[in-house]
Amino acid sequence: MIHSGAVVAAGLSQGRSTTFGFDFGCFQMFEYFRMDSEKRDFVSGGAAAGVSAAFGAPVGGVLFSLEEGASFWNQALTWRIFFASMVTTFTLNMMLSIYHKKAWQFSYPGLINFGKFTDTPYYGQEIPVYILLGIFGGLLGALFNYINYRLTLFRRRNVTTRWLRVLEAILVAMISAVAAFFLIYAINDCQPFGDDPNENPIQMYCLDGQSNSMATLWFQPPEDSVRSLFHDDYAIYKYSTLIAFGVVYFFLACWTYGISVPSGLFIPGLVIGAAWGRLVALFLCAIFPNANWISPGKFALLGAAAQLGGIVRMTLSLTVILIEATGNITLGLPVMIVLMIAKWVGDIFTEGIYDMHIQLQGVPVLGWEPPEMTSNISARKVMSHPVVTLDSLSHANVIVDILKRETHDGFPVVQQQTESLDEHVSIASCENFGTLAGLITRSQLIVLLRQKHSFADGSQAATLTSRDFRSIYPRFPRIESLALSEADLRCSIDLRPFMNPAPYVVYDNTSLPRIFKLFRGLGLRHLVVVNRRNEVIGIVTRKDLARYRVHGAHLTEAEMSA
Amino acid sequence: MAFGDFYNDIYLFGMNRGKGSSASGSAMVSLYNVQNLMMSVVVVLACISFGHSSLQSYDFDPLQAISLLDDAQFEPIAPICEKLVNDFKDALANYTKCVIENARSRRRCELCIDKVIQVLKSFRLLAQKQNGSILCTESYPGMGEVMVFRHFHEFVKKNWANGGCQNCFAWYTINSTISNQLSNTTIMFQQLSSQFYKCLYNATNADDSVVQSRDFLRRLREVHSNETICKKCKKEYDKLNRFYVAKYETTYDKDDIICADIADSMNFTRYIWQEVYHCHIERVSVWPMIVTSVILCCVPVVFYLVSKIVGHEVEPNVVPSKRFRGSLGARVSTSSSIHNHLLT
């Protein structure tokens, strides 16, 4: 849901489709949105809308975006995302109420309904139990993440062709069905029919008038299983049912996440946690026979929160999502305690599962803070050197050659090399590439080449407007698709009217944390490193910064993939 | 007399009685009601015999009832009011007697429907103006919070509805009189049930007296061996069971209560069939199941081994990092094991 929301928002906001060939750019509005910063905001808003639609939790969606989805946050964005989430909830409510034939009776705020916990207080003596739940959730979550990590590594190395992946998905489905059937067959947990609000109860080998409660857990959509575990009566599930279900579901969920189907993690995490949370409640009932403060649904909720928190390590947004989904703010504090402890315990062992997968895929995402132990690293160690630069008056064939050979996206523009090279050698101990004049990006160069403007002088510069540069956003053509004649290639292009004449720079002895903060805070893509004479000696990109990671007590550098 | 209102009374109250009770366990509900009834019977008889009762009618203002300056309560009661009150008292006693006596008969609703109608009718009469001017309620002002007549009227209605008798009947009007009759599903169920019992009696050479006797379990068990009964009456039992499941256990609206007669009867039948004669579904032999499961669980293992052999490791497209091989001392180490893990 989150993914769908973000993708739809990103695409819809641009108002064009290259695949289908239409363009609503005639409306002023869409042109305004064709910028990276606007698109980012839309993606954040879309993710929040996805959460809001899934769980009926608009505020949870906003906080999810704040915590996980957005790197650059401002107050206007808060209001916009909140508005989007509320409208999403309203629209979904309206559609679902029409679908359920109760039009205009708004009682379906979210797709997933966990049932409301009304009148469920908690007592002070339960807080140590909650802490234990959190610890257990963190441990199980770390185990889940570790197993999934090894499995993902194996898959990336070995399950590589398409038919292997399809076969793997088929096998996972098959084994899930086998496991479900075998458990229902083996564990004969019969409950009187009617105590169990399942729409399709299965009798299996129970007597007439009874239904098998293991089947209740397997033969419903998982979100209904969660609701059953939250709200069913104390005696509905036996110990054996919950243990067998929890263990098998844990390993199945771990195995399923990462195969080539769009599978989620929220609901399976909640299901596993609800099962063992309920088990804890049963144990407590056995230890304290006459206690009326033990409510299996409440412990199921907290177990579910602990397990999910242990897997994904989200605290703030998950608390609010669960509060809104269950409609009970009293249980907000226990949920928060459980999530915090699960996160702390889990972080001792592994990372959260999403961070782990991001790292495995090599996406250069920068954290919020610079890595520790890096304050003695200067820009010289971080930067890329040598740099591919362009002269301010370049020949077209040089530009084409560079664009075809390199994969870089930004090129510093330098003034023509002046004399006195030996002077340079004595000052800096590394080669420099000329005095910095500006920075130009690949997309701008391609637009220039495509317009086939040849500028021996600057007189034709006025015929290109910013609209020409904006119109190819977001997907600009590749250099191979440009057709340039020999005559075009011999021309020279003056880059000065089109480059960024004042790019951000750092000196060569700037420390890594400072570079990181600048990069992250301004949302840069390239940062030019200059020496004291304003001569380009290197360039810092996101991948250069992202390769520094702290593992345990060691700082390591990793290789980055393209 | 507005029979329309009366119909609404008993019908709607049964529909809206709230969702407190569960649909199953009507036997439990019956027993619970019996306890309630016995307590209430004592109170009713005590109150009525002492004559301290206060009447609530539909035009009654509670504030007026408390006034002790109302002299109607000290005047002699009009004869018609006395008759109406006695009628109400008798109807109530009859209802209570009927419900308790038939609590285990599995025909409680069918046998007591007339008594309930009588209670409601007599209360309705009691609460209305007689001859245009006399209102019987004024003779029985409220003493504190006790408003006995209304209380017991509500009790009877609630007991009837919660006891699950509402859905045994179908109501219809003929010539502006309300009649009630057993509903079609109730009649159908009774037919199927009697067919089953006929078969059972044939097979066991027993009869109704055995089933109704106090040690029927022992007598049923000793009459015949289990296997033949299970075979002989399986068809009738299946028909009955399927009908019950289809009508009451699958498509049933979970907010309604099953007719108590039918539920009790079905519970009893199932008890005889399953607990006395142990006619269960035979469990399929477990070995094919285990063997199949083991074979199927080995398939993914084989798959992963095959993929390890067949799948070629994709060479990670590592960007050669261009670094200044300068002199600044490096406290950065490239750990090769982390390398391998993070190579994509």
What does it look like?
The complex is a heterodimer of chains A (562) and B (344). Chain A is mostly helical and 562 residues long. In chain A, 53% of the residues lie in helices and 9% in strands. Chain A is built from 23 helices and 14 strands. The longest helix of chain A has 32 residues, at 127-158. Chain A is elongated. The two termini of chain A are 29 Å apart. Residues 420-428 and 454-459 of chain A have low confidence and may be disordered. Chain B is mainly alpha-helical. Helices cover 60% and strands 5% of the residues of chain B. Chain B is built from 14 helices and 4 strands. In chain B, the strands form 2 sheets. Chain B has a two-stranded antiparallel sheet. In chain B, strand 3 and strand 4 (177-182) form a beta hairpin. Chain B is elongated, with a radius of gyration of 35 Å. Chains A and B meet through helix 6, helix 7, strand 13 and strand 14 of A and helix 11, helix 12, helix 13 and helix 14 of B.
